Amino acid sequence: MTQNNIRNKSKIRLWVIIAIVLCLILGGGYILKQFNITNNKDSIVELTPDFIEAIQKYEQLKKFSEGYAAVCKDDKWGYINTKGKEIIQCQYSDVNSFHEGYATVCKDDKWGYVNTHGEELVKCQYSDVFPFYEGYAAVCKDDKWGYVDTKGKEIIQCQYSVVNCFFEGLAAVLKNGKWGYIDTKGEEVVPINIEAEFAGRFSEGLAFIYKDENNFSVIDRKGDIIFSGNCDFSWYFKSNIVDESHLPRYFQGELYIPSNSSNFTVYDSKGNKIKETDEYLGNKSEMPYTVFAKENGNIEGLKYLTVGLKDANDKELIPAIYKHIGVAEIGENIDVSNGVVLVVLNEMGENVVECYAGEFDSFYSNDEKWFYGYADLKGHDTFSEELKKKCKESYERAVNKLFQQKVEEKRRLNREGPDWLQGAWRMQLTDDYGRHLGYMYEVFNHGTSKTYANGSLISERNYTVSDDMVIYDNNGYYQLDNDRQIVISADGLKMQKVSNDTSYSPTSYSSSRSYSDNGNSNNRQEREYMLKLSKLSDKGRELVNELSSMRANGNIDPFRVMYIKQNLIRYKDEQIDIAANKLHDSQLAREYMEQKDTVQNFV
Known about the structure:
Radius of gyration: 39 Å
Number of domains: 5
Strand order of the largest sheet: 36-35-34-33-41
CATH architecture of the largest domain: Beta Barrel
Mean pLDDT: 83
Strand content: 35-45%
Largest sheet: 5 strands, antiparallel
CATH class of the largest domain: Mainly Beta
Structural class: alpha+beta
Number of strands: 41
Protein backbone atom coordinates (compact mmCIF):
# COMPACT_ATOMS: atom_id res chain seq x y z
CA MET A 1 0.00 0.00 0.00
CA THR A 2 1.49 3.37 -0.98
CA GLN A 3 1.97 6.23 1.42
CA ASN A 4 -0.49 8.36 -0.60
CA ASN A 5 -3.18 5.70 -0.15
CA ILE A 6 -2.47 5.65 3.57
CA ARG A 7 -2.79 9.44 3.71
CA ASN A 8 -6.05 9.40 1.72
CA LYS A 9 -7.58 6.76 3.99
CA SER A 10 -6.48 8.74 7.02
CA LYS A 11 -8.16 11.85 5.61
CA ILE A 12 -11.32 9.87 4.92
CA ARG A 13 -11.36 8.51 8.46
CA LEU A 14 -10.80 12.03 9.80
CA TRP A 15 -13.74 13.42 7.83
CA VAL A 16 -15.93 10.52 8.95
CA ILE A 17 -14.99 11.23 12.56
CA ILE A 18 -15.73 14.95 12.08
CA ALA A 19 -19.11 14.13 10.50
CA ILE A 20 -20.01 11.80 13.35
CA VAL A 21 -19.04 14.43 15.91
CA LEU A 22 -21.15 17.07 14.13
CA CYS A 23 -24.12 14.68 14.02
CA LEU A 24 -23.71 14.01 17.70
CA ILE A 25 -23.51 17.72 18.46
CA LEU A 26 -26.47 18.69 16.32
CA GLY A 27 -28.61 15.60 16.68
CA GLY A 28 -27.58 15.05 20.25
CA GLY A 29 -28.47 18.63 21.05
CA TYR A 30 -31.95 18.07 19.63
CA ILE A 31 -32.27 14.78 21.49
CA LEU A 32 -31.06 16.46 24.66
CA LYS A 33 -33.60 19.23 24.14
CA GLN A 34 -36.39 16.70 23.78
CA PHE A 35 -35.07 14.78 26.76
CA ASN A 36 -35.05 17.92 28.86
CA ILE A 37 -38.63 18.66 27.82
CA THR A 38 -40.08 15.35 28.84
CA ASN A 39 -37.76 13.14 30.82
CA ASN A 40 -35.08 14.76 32.93
CA LYS A 41 -35.59 15.35 36.63
CA ASP A 42 -36.21 19.09 36.23
CA SER A 43 -39.25 18.31 34.07
CA ILE A 44 -40.91 16.23 36.79
CA VAL A 45 -43.18 18.27 39.02
CA GLU A 46 -42.42 17.64 42.66
CA LEU A 47 -45.27 18.70 44.92
CA THR A 48 -43.02 20.43 47.45
CA PRO A 49 -44.27 23.05 49.93
CA ASP A 50 -42.60 25.75 47.82
CA PHE A 51 -44.38 24.59 44.66
CA ILE A 52 -47.72 24.35 46.45
CA GLU A 53 -47.30 27.85 47.87
CA ALA A 54 -46.27 29.24 44.48
CA ILE A 55 -49.48 28.15 42.70
CA GLN A 56 -51.89 29.45 45.34
CA LYS A 57 -51.98 32.92 43.76
CA TYR A 58 -53.55 31.63 40.56
CA GLU A 59 -57.29 31.50 39.99
CA GLN A 60 -57.12 28.71 37.43
CA LEU A 61 -54.60 26.18 36.19
CA LYS A 62 -54.18 23.97 33.13
CA LYS A 63 -52.32 20.71 32.75
CA PHE A 64 -48.53 20.47 32.46
CA SER A 65 -47.06 19.75 29.04
CA GLU A 66 -43.39 19.69 28.09
CA GLY A 67 -42.44 21.13 31.44
CA TYR A 68 -44.83 24.08 31.48
CA ALA A 69 -48.40 24.76 32.59
CA ALA A 70 -50.77 27.62 31.81
CA VAL A 71 -51.92 29.66 34.81
CA CYS A 72 -54.46 32.44 35.20
CA LYS A 73 -54.22 35.50 37.43
CA ASP A 74 -56.59 38.49 37.28
CA ASP A 75 -58.24 36.95 34.19
CA LYS A 76 -54.93 36.92 32.31
CA TRP A 77 -52.95 33.83 31.33
CA GLY A 78 -49.27 33.01 31.46
CA TYR A 79 -47.05 29.97 32.18
CA ILE A 80 -45.13 28.41 35.04
CA ASN A 81 -42.37 25.81 34.96
CA THR A 82 -42.14 22.62 37.00
CA LYS A 83 -40.82 24.59 39.99
CA GLY A 84 -43.89 26.82 40.02
CA LYS A 85 -41.92 29.82 38.76
CA GLU A 86 -43.79 32.15 36.40
CA ILE A 87 -41.62 32.12 33.29
CA ILE A 88 -44.12 33.84 30.97
CA GLN A 89 -46.03 36.74 32.46
CA CYS A 90 -49.83 36.52 32.75
CA GLN A 91 -50.82 38.81 29.89
CA TYR A 92 -52.96 36.79 27.46
CA SER A 93 -56.74 36.44 27.32
CA ASP A 94 -56.44 32.72 26.52
CA VAL A 95 -53.68 30.16 25.98
CA ASN A 96 -53.15 26.46 25.30
CA SER A 97 -50.53 23.92 26.34
CA PHE A 98 -47.05 23.71 24.85
CA HIS A 99 -46.57 21.24 22.03
CA GLU A 100 -43.29 20.67 20.23
CA GLY A 101 -41.82 23.61 22.12
CA TYR A 102 -44.47 26.20 21.22
CA ALA A 103 -47.80 27.30 22.69
CA THR A 104 -50.78 29.08 21.14
CA VAL A 105 -51.68 32.37 22.85
CA CYS A 106 -54.48 34.87 22.34
CA LYS A 107 -54.50 38.64 22.71
CA ASP A 108 -57.24 41.01 21.51
CA ASP A 109 -59.12 38.04 19.99
CA LYS A 110 -56.16 37.15 17.76
CA TRP A 111 -53.92 34.11 18.08
CA GLY A 112 -50.19 33.57 17.74
CA TYR A 113 -47.35 31.40 19.08
CA VAL A 114 -44.71 31.79 21.80
CA ASN A 115 -41.70 29.66 22.71
CA THR A 116 -40.69 28.59 26.22
CA HIS A 117 -38.86 31.90 26.75
CA GLY A 118 -42.00 33.89 26.06
CA GLU A 119 -40.69 35.10 22.71
CA GLU A 120 -43.35 35.50 20.05
CA LEU A 121 -42.63 33.16 17.16
CA VAL A 122 -45.79 34.39 15.42
CA LYS A 123 -47.50 37.59 16.49
CA CYS A 124 -51.15 37.37 17.55
CA GLN A 125 -52.71 37.95 14.12
CA TYR A 126 -54.76 34.85 13.27
CA SER A 127 -58.44 34.23 14.05
CA ASP A 128 -57.73 30.58 14.92
CA VAL A 129 -54.72 28.28 15.20
CA PHE A 130 -53.75 24.65 15.81
CA PRO A 131 -50.76 23.36 17.79
CA PHE A 132 -47.51 22.45 16.05
CA TYR A 133 -47.28 18.91 14.69
CA GLU A 134 -44.21 17.63 12.90
CA GLY A 135 -42.82 21.15 12.80
CA TYR A 136 -45.85 22.83 11.20
CA ALA A 137 -48.99 24.48 12.53
CA ALA A 138 -52.33 25.28 10.90
CA VAL A 139 -53.45 28.94 11.05
CA CYS A 140 -56.64 30.69 9.97
CA LYS A 141 -57.09 34.16 8.53
CA ASP A 142 -60.25 35.53 6.86
CA ASP A 143 -61.93 32.10 7.29
CA LYS A 144 -59.22 30.38 5.24
CA TRP A 145 -56.57 28.00 6.58
CA GLY A 146 -52.87 27.61 5.82
CA TYR A 147 -49.67 26.61 7.65
CA VAL A 148 -46.65 28.19 9.34
CA ASP A 149 -43.29 26.62 10.18
CA THR A 150 -41.14 26.87 13.33
CA LYS A 151 -39.55 30.05 12.00
CA GLY A 152 -42.94 31.73 11.97
CA LYS A 153 -43.08 31.83 8.19
CA GLU A 154 -46.40 31.17 6.44
CA ILE A 155 -45.14 28.43 4.15
CA ILE A 156 -48.58 27.39 2.82
CA GLN A 157 -50.96 30.21 1.98
CA CYS A 158 -54.32 30.43 3.81
CA GLN A 159 -56.63 29.03 1.14
CA TYR A 160 -58.48 26.00 2.57
CA SER A 161 -61.93 25.83 4.19
CA VAL A 162 -60.93 23.19 6.76
CA VAL A 163 -57.59 21.57 7.54
CA ASN A 164 -56.01 18.99 9.79
CA CYS A 165 -52.56 18.87 11.38
CA PHE A 166 -49.66 17.11 9.69
CA PHE A 167 -49.32 13.41 10.46
CA GLU A 168 -46.76 11.22 8.74
CA GLY A 169 -45.89 14.18 6.52
CA LEU A 170 -49.42 14.71 5.17
CA ALA A 171 -52.34 16.93 6.18
CA ALA A 172 -55.99 16.63 5.20
CA VAL A 173 -57.41 19.78 3.59
CA LEU A 174 -60.89 20.76 2.36
CA LYS A 175 -61.35 23.02 -0.65
CA ASN A 176 -64.50 23.66 -2.67
CA GLY A 177 -66.31 21.00 -0.69
CA LYS A 178 -63.84 18.19 -1.38
CA TRP A 179 -60.99 16.66 0.62
CA GLY A 180 -57.44 15.80 -0.26
CA TYR A 181 -53.98 15.61 1.33
CA ILE A 182 -50.99 17.92 0.93
CA ASP A 183 -47.35 17.62 1.96
CA THR A 184 -45.29 20.21 3.84
CA LYS A 185 -44.54 22.03 0.55
CA GLY A 186 -48.24 22.48 -0.13
CA GLU A 187 -48.26 20.01 -3.00
CA GLU A 188 -51.25 17.72 -3.47
CA VAL A 189 -50.19 14.16 -2.74
CA VAL A 190 -53.75 12.86 -2.68
CA PRO A 191 -55.81 14.98 -5.11
CA ILE A 192 -58.52 17.15 -3.60
CA ASN A 193 -61.47 15.26 -5.02
CA ILE A 194 -62.61 13.09 -2.10
CA GLU A 195 -66.30 13.54 -1.31
CA ALA A 196 -66.77 12.98 2.43
CA GLU A 197 -67.80 14.74 5.60
CA PHE A 198 -64.29 14.49 7.04
CA ALA A 199 -60.88 13.06 6.19
CA GLY A 200 -58.86 11.69 9.09
CA ARG A 201 -55.14 11.75 9.83
CA PHE A 202 -52.65 9.29 8.39
CA SER A 203 -51.52 6.57 10.76
CA GLU A 204 -49.37 3.58 9.83
CA GLY A 205 -49.65 4.65 6.18
CA LEU A 206 -53.46 4.63 6.10
CA ALA A 207 -56.18 7.24 6.63
CA PHE A 208 -59.82 6.88 7.68
CA ILE A 209 -62.36 8.68 5.45
CA TYR A 210 -65.62 9.55 7.20
CA LYS A 211 -68.19 9.49 4.38
CA ASP A 212 -71.19 9.93 6.67
CA GLU A 213 -72.44 8.40 9.89
CA ASN A 214 -73.13 5.09 8.12
CA ASN A 215 -70.28 4.72 5.60
CA PHE A 216 -66.48 4.92 5.60
CA SER A 217 -63.40 4.14 3.52
CA VAL A 218 -59.72 3.61 4.21
CA ILE A 219 -57.13 4.98 1.77
CA ASP A 220 -53.36 4.71 1.35
CA ARG A 221 -50.85 7.50 0.69
CA LYS A 222 -51.64 7.42 -3.02
CA GLY A 223 -55.33 7.98 -2.35
CA ASP A 224 -56.28 4.48 -3.43
CA ILE A 225 -59.20 2.96 -1.52
CA ILE A 226 -57.99 -0.09 0.40
CA PHE A 227 -61.48 -1.03 1.58
CA SER A 228 -64.88 0.46 2.50
CA GLY A 229 -67.54 -0.52 4.97
CA ASN A 230 -70.61 0.32 6.99
CA CYS A 231 -70.57 1.94 10.40
CA ASP A 232 -72.80 3.65 12.96
CA PHE A 233 -71.48 7.00 14.15
CA SER A 234 -74.93 8.24 15.22
CA TRP A 235 -74.00 7.74 18.91
CA TYR A 236 -70.24 8.18 18.70
CA PHE A 237 -69.72 11.94 18.61
CA LYS A 238 -70.92 14.25 21.37
CA SER A 239 -73.59 16.76 20.36
CA ASN A 240 -73.52 15.17 16.87
CA ILE A 241 -70.38 17.18 16.06
CA VAL A 242 -67.66 15.34 14.13
CA ASP A 243 -64.47 15.58 16.20
CA GLU A 244 -61.40 14.77 14.07
CA SER A 245 -59.34 13.87 17.12
CA HIS A 246 -61.85 11.09 17.86
CA LEU A 247 -62.00 9.73 14.31
CA PRO A 248 -60.72 6.15 14.16
CA ARG A 249 -57.09 5.62 13.13
CA TYR A 250 -54.80 2.64 12.89
CA PHE A 251 -52.81 1.68 15.94
CA GLN A 252 -50.63 -1.41 16.00
CA GLY A 253 -52.33 -2.69 12.87
CA GLU A 254 -55.91 -2.40 14.16
CA LEU A 255 -58.75 0.00 13.33
CA TYR A 256 -61.82 0.24 15.62
CA ILE A 257 -65.04 1.23 13.80
CA PRO A 258 -68.33 1.75 15.73
CA SER A 259 -70.85 -0.74 14.38
CA ASN A 260 -73.89 -0.10 16.59
CA SER A 261 -74.87 1.73 19.75
CA SER A 262 -71.99 0.36 21.82
CA ASN A 263 -69.96 -2.16 19.79
CA PHE A 264 -66.95 -1.89 17.51
CA THR A 265 -65.79 -3.88 14.50
CA VAL A 266 -62.01 -4.26 14.41
CA TYR A 267 -60.26 -4.34 11.00
CA ASP A 268 -56.68 -5.09 10.04
CA SER A 269 -54.72 -3.02 7.51
CA LYS A 270 -56.16 -5.01 4.57
CA GLY A 271 -59.78 -4.59 5.63
CA ASN A 272 -60.24 -8.04 7.13
CA LYS A 273 -62.58 -8.17 10.13
CA ILE A 274 -60.63 -9.32 13.16
CA LYS A 275 -63.34 -9.27 15.81
CA GLU A 276 -66.43 -7.61 17.27
CA THR A 277 -66.03 -6.02 20.71
CA ASP A 278 -67.74 -3.64 23.10
CA GLU A 279 -64.41 -2.37 24.43
CA TYR A 280 -62.52 0.33 22.56
CA LEU A 281 -58.80 -0.28 22.86
CA GLY A 282 -57.67 1.79 19.88
CA ASN A 283 -54.73 3.89 21.04
CA LYS A 284 -55.11 2.90 24.69
CA SER A 285 -51.45 1.98 25.12
CA GLU A 286 -50.55 5.53 24.04
CA MET A 287 -52.54 6.80 27.00
CA PRO A 288 -52.32 4.07 29.65
CA TYR A 289 -54.16 5.88 32.42
CA THR A 290 -57.94 5.78 32.85
CA VAL A 291 -60.27 8.13 34.70
CA PHE A 292 -62.63 6.16 36.93
CA ALA A 293 -65.55 7.23 39.12
CA LYS A 294 -66.84 6.47 42.57
CA GLU A 295 -70.47 6.92 43.61
CA ASN A 296 -70.97 8.78 46.88
CA GLY A 297 -73.97 9.25 49.13
CA ASN A 298 -76.41 6.88 50.80
CA ILE A 299 -79.65 8.35 49.48
CA GLU A 300 -80.99 6.82 46.28
CA GLY A 301 -81.49 9.41 43.59
CA LEU A 302 -79.12 11.85 45.30
CA LYS A 303 -75.77 10.32 44.46
CA TYR A 304 -72.75 12.29 43.37
CA LEU A 305 -69.62 11.15 41.57
CA THR A 306 -65.97 11.82 42.25
CA VAL A 307 -63.14 10.70 39.99
CA GLY A 308 -59.66 9.25 40.31
CA LEU A 309 -57.01 7.62 38.11
CA LYS A 310 -56.03 4.01 37.43
CA ASP A 311 -53.20 2.52 35.38
CA ALA A 312 -53.45 -0.04 32.59
CA ASN A 313 -53.49 -2.84 35.18
CA ASP A 314 -56.51 -1.30 36.92
CA LYS A 315 -54.40 -0.27 39.88
CA GLU A 316 -55.66 2.85 41.66
CA LEU A 317 -53.00 5.57 41.54
CA ILE A 318 -55.02 8.64 42.46
CA PRO A 319 -58.02 8.25 44.79
CA ALA A 320 -61.48 9.18 43.53
CA ILE A 321 -62.01 12.35 45.54
CA TYR A 322 -61.99 15.00 42.79
CA LYS A 323 -64.67 16.65 40.69
CA HIS A 324 -62.54 16.46 37.55
CA ILE A 325 -59.18 15.19 36.36
CA GLY A 326 -58.13 17.51 33.56
CA VAL A 327 -60.87 17.75 30.97
CA ALA A 328 -61.25 13.97 30.65
CA GLU A 329 -64.59 12.28 31.17
CA ILE A 330 -65.27 9.12 33.11
CA GLY A 331 -63.80 6.10 31.36
CA GLU A 332 -61.53 8.11 29.09
CA ASN A 333 -57.83 7.38 28.75
CA ILE A 334 -55.34 10.16 29.38
CA ASP A 335 -51.59 10.64 29.40
CA VAL A 336 -49.62 12.04 32.32
CA SER A 337 -47.28 14.92 31.55
CA ASN A 338 -44.37 15.85 33.80
CA GLY A 339 -45.49 13.33 36.40
CA VAL A 340 -48.74 15.09 37.42
CA VAL A 341 -52.34 15.57 36.31
CA LEU A 342 -54.61 18.55 36.75
CA VAL A 343 -57.24 17.92 39.45
CA VAL A 344 -60.26 19.99 40.42
CA LEU A 345 -62.27 20.21 43.63
CA ASN A 346 -65.49 22.12 44.02
CA GLU A 347 -67.42 23.41 46.99
CA MET A 348 -71.19 23.35 46.68
CA GLY A 349 -72.95 26.63 47.40
CA GLU A 350 -76.25 27.25 49.12
CA ASN A 351 -78.34 27.33 45.95
CA VAL A 352 -78.55 23.60 45.20
CA VAL A 353 -80.66 22.45 42.26
CA GLU A 354 -81.73 18.89 41.51
CA CYS A 355 -81.28 17.73 37.93
CA TYR A 356 -81.53 14.59 35.82
CA ALA A 357 -79.78 11.69 37.55
CA GLY A 358 -77.98 10.21 34.58
CA GLU A 359 -74.31 9.41 34.17
CA PHE A 360 -73.31 12.43 36.22
CA ASP A 361 -74.40 14.08 39.44
CA SER A 362 -78.11 14.31 40.22
CA PHE A 363 -77.73 17.89 41.48
CA TYR A 364 -75.60 20.96 41.05
CA SER A 365 -75.07 24.38 42.58
CA ASN A 366 -75.02 27.57 40.53
CA ASP A 367 -72.95 29.34 43.18
CA GLU A 368 -70.30 26.66 43.68
CA LYS A 369 -66.55 27.37 43.95
CA TRP A 370 -63.86 25.59 41.94
CA PHE A 371 -60.32 24.89 43.15
CA TYR A 372 -57.48 23.84 40.84
CA GLY A 373 -54.39 21.84 41.72
CA TYR A 374 -52.14 18.96 40.71
CA ALA A 375 -51.83 15.33 41.81
CA ASP A 376 -48.95 12.93 41.20
CA LEU A 377 -49.10 9.20 40.55
CA LYS A 378 -48.50 8.45 44.22
CA GLY A 379 -51.82 10.04 45.12
CA HIS A 380 -50.36 13.25 46.60
CA ASP A 381 -51.92 16.59 45.64
CA THR A 382 -51.56 20.32 46.23
CA PHE A 383 -54.77 20.74 48.25
CA SER A 384 -54.89 21.02 52.01
CA GLU A 385 -56.74 18.35 53.99
CA GLU A 386 -58.91 21.13 55.36
CA LEU A 387 -60.05 22.17 51.86
CA LYS A 388 -60.78 18.59 50.79
CA LYS A 389 -62.82 18.07 53.95
CA LYS A 390 -64.65 21.35 53.37
CA CYS A 391 -65.59 20.38 49.80
CA LYS A 392 -66.75 16.91 50.85
CA GLU A 393 -68.89 18.35 53.65
CA SER A 394 -70.45 20.82 51.20
CA TYR A 395 -71.67 17.87 49.11
CA GLU A 396 -73.05 16.14 52.17
CA ARG A 397 -74.91 19.31 53.13
CA ALA A 398 -76.28 19.55 49.61
CA VAL A 399 -77.50 15.93 49.76
CA ASN A 400 -79.20 16.49 53.10
CA LYS A 401 -80.76 19.72 51.89
CA LEU A 402 -82.16 18.10 48.77
CA PHE A 403 -83.39 15.13 50.78
CA GLN A 404 -85.32 17.44 53.09
CA GLN A 405 -86.70 19.23 50.04
CA LYS A 406 -87.84 15.88 48.65
CA VAL A 407 -89.51 15.01 51.96
CA GLU A 408 -91.29 18.36 52.03
CA GLU A 409 -92.28 18.01 48.39
CA LYS A 410 -93.72 14.56 49.06
CA ARG A 411 -95.72 15.97 51.96
CA ARG A 412 -96.89 18.84 49.82
CA LEU A 413 -97.97 16.52 47.01
CA ASN A 414 -99.80 14.37 49.53
CA ARG A 415 -101.46 17.47 50.91
CA GLU A 416 -102.19 19.35 47.67
CA GLY A 417 -101.59 17.06 44.73
CA PRO A 418 -99.36 17.85 41.75
CA ASP A 419 -99.13 21.33 40.27
CA TRP A 420 -101.02 20.35 37.13
CA LEU A 421 -104.07 19.45 39.28
CA GLN A 422 -104.49 22.97 40.67
CA GLY A 423 -107.23 25.04 39.01
CA ALA A 424 -110.70 24.43 37.59
CA TRP A 425 -111.90 21.17 36.03
CA ARG A 426 -115.24 20.71 34.29
CA MET A 427 -117.51 17.72 33.73
CA GLN A 428 -120.69 17.70 31.65
CA LEU A 429 -123.96 16.87 33.41
CA THR A 430 -126.58 14.84 31.56
CA ASP A 431 -129.92 13.23 32.47
CA ASP A 432 -130.78 9.56 32.09
CA TYR A 433 -131.46 10.14 28.40
CA GLY A 434 -128.06 11.74 27.79
CA ARG A 435 -129.49 15.22 27.47
CA HIS A 436 -127.15 18.09 28.33
CA LEU A 437 -128.08 19.69 31.67
CA GLY A 438 -125.06 21.93 32.23
CA TYR A 439 -121.66 21.48 33.88
CA MET A 440 -120.19 20.63 37.23
CA TYR A 441 -116.88 22.26 38.21
CA GLU A 442 -114.25 21.16 40.71
CA VAL A 443 -111.72 23.86 41.60
CA PHE A 444 -108.62 22.51 43.35
CA ASN A 445 -106.63 24.95 45.44
CA HIS A 446 -103.64 23.34 47.22
CA GLY A 447 -105.51 21.12 49.65
CA THR A 448 -109.01 22.57 49.46
CA SER A 449 -111.56 22.27 46.67
CA LYS A 450 -114.85 23.90 45.75
CA THR A 451 -117.59 22.11 43.83
CA TYR A 452 -120.02 24.03 41.63
CA ALA A 453 -123.14 22.72 39.88
CA ASN A 454 -125.72 24.68 37.94
CA GLY A 455 -123.95 27.91 38.82
CA SER A 456 -124.07 27.33 42.57
CA LEU A 457 -121.37 26.48 45.07
CA ILE A 458 -122.52 23.19 46.57
CA SER A 459 -119.50 22.21 48.68
CA GLU A 460 -116.12 23.34 49.96
CA ARG A 461 -113.89 20.75 51.60
CA ASN A 462 -110.34 19.64 52.27
CA TYR A 463 -108.66 16.83 50.36
CA THR A 464 -105.46 14.84 50.30
CA VAL A 465 -103.80 12.85 47.52
CA SER A 466 -102.59 9.30 47.94
CA ASP A 467 -101.83 6.62 45.34
CA ASP A 468 -103.03 8.99 42.58
CA MET A 469 -106.44 9.40 44.22
CA VAL A 470 -108.05 12.61 45.47
CA ILE A 471 -109.46 11.64 48.85
CA TYR A 472 -112.27 13.33 50.78
CA ASP A 473 -113.05 12.09 54.30
CA ASN A 474 -110.98 8.94 53.76
CA ASN A 475 -112.89 8.08 50.55
CA GLY A 476 -111.31 8.28 47.13
CA TYR A 477 -113.31 10.21 44.59
CA TYR A 478 -111.13 11.39 41.69
CA GLN A 479 -108.46 9.34 39.95
CA LEU A 480 -105.34 11.20 38.74
CA ASP A 481 -103.56 10.15 35.56
CA ASN A 482 -100.14 11.76 36.02
CA ASP A 483 -98.83 10.62 32.66
CA ARG A 484 -101.61 12.31 30.70
CA GLN A 485 -102.30 14.90 33.43
CA ILE A 486 -106.04 14.36 33.51
CA VAL A 487 -108.68 13.88 36.23
CA ILE A 488 -111.19 11.02 36.06
CA SER A 489 -114.38 11.07 38.10
CA ALA A 490 -115.69 8.21 40.21
CA ASP A 491 -118.06 7.43 37.33
CA GLY A 492 -115.10 7.01 34.97
CA LEU A 493 -115.74 10.30 33.15
CA LYS A 494 -112.74 12.35 32.03
CA MET A 495 -112.81 15.93 33.26
CA GLN A 496 -111.56 18.88 31.26
CA LYS A 497 -109.13 21.50 32.56
CA VAL A 498 -110.64 24.92 31.92
CA SER A 499 -108.42 27.19 34.00
CA ASN A 500 -105.22 27.20 36.04
CA ASP A 501 -106.74 29.88 38.26
CA THR A 502 -107.27 28.40 41.73
CA SER A 503 -109.76 31.20 42.55
CA TYR A 504 -111.85 30.43 39.49
CA SER A 505 -115.60 30.81 40.03
CA PRO A 506 -118.23 29.89 37.40
CA THR A 507 -121.01 31.66 39.30
CA SER A 508 -120.38 34.91 37.43
CA TYR A 509 -120.74 34.04 33.77
CA SER A 510 -117.50 33.25 31.90
CA SER A 511 -116.50 31.38 28.78
CA SER A 512 -117.03 28.09 30.59
CA ARG A 513 -119.74 28.00 33.23
CA SER A 514 -122.94 26.38 34.47
CA TYR A 515 -126.42 27.84 34.66
CA SER A 516 -129.10 28.10 37.35
CA ASP A 517 -132.46 29.72 37.96
CA ASN A 518 -132.24 31.68 41.18
CA GLY A 519 -134.94 34.25 40.36
CA ASN A 520 -132.66 36.56 38.45
CA SER A 521 -134.04 37.54 35.03
CA ASN A 522 -130.67 37.07 33.33
CA ASN A 523 -130.38 33.57 34.79
CA ARG A 524 -133.93 32.76 33.66
CA GLN A 525 -133.02 33.82 30.12
CA GLU A 526 -129.89 31.72 30.23
CA ARG A 527 -131.98 28.80 31.42
CA GLU A 528 -134.28 29.27 28.41
CA TYR A 529 -131.28 29.22 26.08
CA MET A 530 -130.04 26.04 27.74
CA LEU A 531 -133.48 24.47 27.30
CA LYS A 532 -133.46 25.38 23.61
CA LEU A 533 -130.04 23.83 23.23
CA SER A 534 -131.37 20.65 24.81
CA LYS A 535 -134.38 20.56 22.46
CA LEU A 536 -132.14 21.02 19.43
CA SER A 537 -130.03 18.11 20.66
CA ASP A 538 -133.18 15.97 21.01
CA LYS A 539 -134.22 16.79 17.43
CA GLY A 540 -130.79 15.98 16.16
CA ARG A 541 -130.71 12.66 18.05
CA GLU A 542 -134.03 11.66 16.45
CA LEU A 543 -132.67 12.32 12.98
CA VAL A 544 -129.46 10.39 13.71
CA ASN A 545 -131.53 7.44 14.96
CA GLU A 546 -133.60 7.52 11.77
CA LEU A 547 -130.47 7.55 9.62
CA SER A 548 -128.96 4.65 11.57
CA SER A 549 -132.16 2.65 11.13
CA MET A 550 -132.14 3.27 7.37
CA ARG A 551 -128.57 2.01 7.09
CA ALA A 552 -129.30 -1.03 9.26
CA ASN A 553 -132.24 -2.01 7.03
CA GLY A 554 -130.36 -1.27 3.80
CA ASN A 555 -133.20 0.99 2.70
CA ILE A 556 -131.40 4.31 2.11
CA ASP A 557 -133.33 7.17 0.52
CA PRO A 558 -130.77 9.66 -0.87
CA PHE A 559 -133.20 12.55 -0.72
CA ARG A 560 -134.09 11.75 2.90
CA VAL A 561 -130.40 11.45 3.75
CA MET A 562 -129.78 14.89 2.25
CA TYR A 563 -132.66 16.30 4.29
CA ILE A 564 -131.30 14.76 7.51
CA LYS A 565 -127.81 16.11 6.86
CA GLN A 566 -129.07 19.63 6.13
CA ASN A 567 -131.17 19.71 9.28
CA LEU A 568 -128.48 18.26 11.51
CA ILE A 569 -126.06 20.94 10.31
CA ARG A 570 -128.75 23.59 10.78
CA TYR A 571 -129.39 22.43 14.37
CA LYS A 572 -125.64 22.57 15.14
CA ASP A 573 -125.37 26.04 13.59
CA GLU A 574 -128.22 27.23 15.84
CA GLN A 575 -126.53 25.71 18.89
CA ILE A 576 -123.21 27.33 17.96
CA ASP A 577 -124.98 30.71 17.60
CA ILE A 578 -126.72 30.39 20.98
CA ALA A 579 -123.54 29.30 22.76
CA ALA A 580 -121.33 31.95 21.19
CA ASN A 581 -123.64 34.97 20.85
CA LYS A 582 -126.31 34.47 23.51
CA LEU A 583 -124.48 32.67 26.29
CA HIS A 584 -121.05 33.91 25.23
CA ASP A 585 -119.67 30.49 26.09
CA SER A 586 -116.73 29.98 23.71
CA GLN A 587 -115.91 26.57 25.11
CA LEU A 588 -119.46 25.30 24.58
CA ALA A 589 -119.47 26.80 21.08
CA ARG A 590 -116.28 24.90 20.24
CA GLU A 591 -117.90 21.67 21.42
CA TYR A 592 -120.83 22.20 19.08
CA MET A 593 -118.41 22.95 16.24
CA GLU A 594 -116.68 19.63 16.89
CA GLN A 595 -120.08 17.91 16.90
CA LYS A 596 -120.90 19.58 13.56
CA ASP A 597 -117.69 18.17 12.06
CA THR A 598 -118.66 14.74 13.38
CA VAL A 599 -122.12 15.06 11.82
CA GLN A 600 -120.68 15.93 8.43
CA ASN A 601 -118.35 12.93 8.52
CA PHE A 602 -121.04 10.61 9.88
CA VAL A 603 -123.64 11.51 7.28
